[in-house]
Batch of 2 targets.
Target 1
Amino acid sequence: MSKVVLQCEGLSRVYEDGDRSVTVLRGVDLTLLAGEKIAVVGGSGSGKSTLLNLLGGLDNPSSGRVLMSGKDLSKLDERALCQLRNSQLGFVYQFHHLLPEFDARENVAMPLLIGGTVRKEAWLIAEAMLERVGMAHRLAHRPAHLSGGERQRVAIARALVARPDCVLLDEPTGNLDPTSAGQVLDLIDELGQEEASFVVVTHDPAIAAHMNRTLELRDGILQELM
């Protein structure tokens, strides 16, 4: 039986907007198994990014809970939550969020350094991961000198460098041209076979088609598409 990596139960999120309440998520249940790749689709404003933030412990649910490897994120203090995010979760966003003052190797090594890995070892691990994503020739280049596709490759390398159990991706190809988007998708396919489970929020049917399962978020309810 496959290991349950990430799970949410009865997840709801309500925002207060002046004198009214806006319900974005309504009792969402989700189970992600080891090695599984899931796409979450839905219209603009359907709550896809909100769901991803809750799964990653970046926001708190109004009700329900999120479990990461059996740990209830709401029960963890800020330090423990940061440690869990650093070691067990990887994040890739539509905008790469690389640190502009650091080169590709330094950006990818950052999660390892934060986790206590010595610099020399962190750099070697980062270099190996960048080689795997086809960026070995751009180690010393800062984000401003990389193309959009190259930046996303570096962002994916950074997300995977600590070998997390789960990687959360929010529209990872949304700002890329078709060729670069295809390369990033191939990379996710390749690395996903051995590195981690994936939850990909997307509006792109091509990405959803590459996942094991596709779920749709509509009116705050998450349902599996057949």
Target 2
Amino acid sequence: MTTMAERASRGSLRVVGAMLTDIGRVRSTNEDTVAFVAPAEGTPEEKVGFLALVADGMGGHAAGEVASALAADVVRREIYSSDEAPPRALLEAFESANRAILDYSAANPKTRGMGTTCTAILIRDDLLWLAHVGDSRAYLLRESALLQLSDDQTLHARLIRDGVMTPEQAQKSPGGNFILQALGARDKFEPTIFETGFKLRLGDTVLLCSDGLHNLVTSADILEIIRANNPQEACRELVEKALAAGGADNISVGVFRIVDAALARNRDQAATKPIRIIADDAVSPDPVETRCEG
């Protein structure tokens, strides 16, 4: 299912985009959750800005699906109830999501050990802030260059950054998918948070994706697909590319383009779809202004 987001920030720029998630060809369940919030013009939420995230759950027995959905719901609720500046609001939202997953695991022994990556962007006016844990990714496409905004928090990525291993050696070495940090893994964690907003330009495109995409689709192919298609079609093409490469994992992607506000204002908003979490009175997602696929 693909949905469209727009009217996401104040000023002359708006965000128009889409998200799509697919179970892939191998997994029996989809443990990914994607979600975005595009506040309507003139609402209090518009002052907060546009929020989008990808969460890739882990833990098996449907627990990964629960962890990623919890993260998406808690982060969304915390961001839009916070009066803090974006870096602090994102940090507190991630901390709350981490605690919610740990508390749920403690109360539901069958889900113990579950966790999730989470890569989120908050766009306000023409500035972007990133919050990130795990190995899902955020990219920026500007003109002909594709820049990875997030840092992979995996064993191999750390060894490469520390100069212990080359990228070529990493490709041939086992353990490349070992994640060093995840929401719900432990009490203490250190997310990557942009302390200063990244200045966006008209025509920029932001991509969010799980490793089910970036492990199978090259950066060159990602760049070509995004440049050749509108966000909705780009999401479909990227997922199809990952499926053609084997689809060994769940595949999630979001493509968001920065456009002139006057062009975005006349587009139709998509229907809202609430975040689905297994029955639990402590979690009651409000579907208004939230688009997602879990």
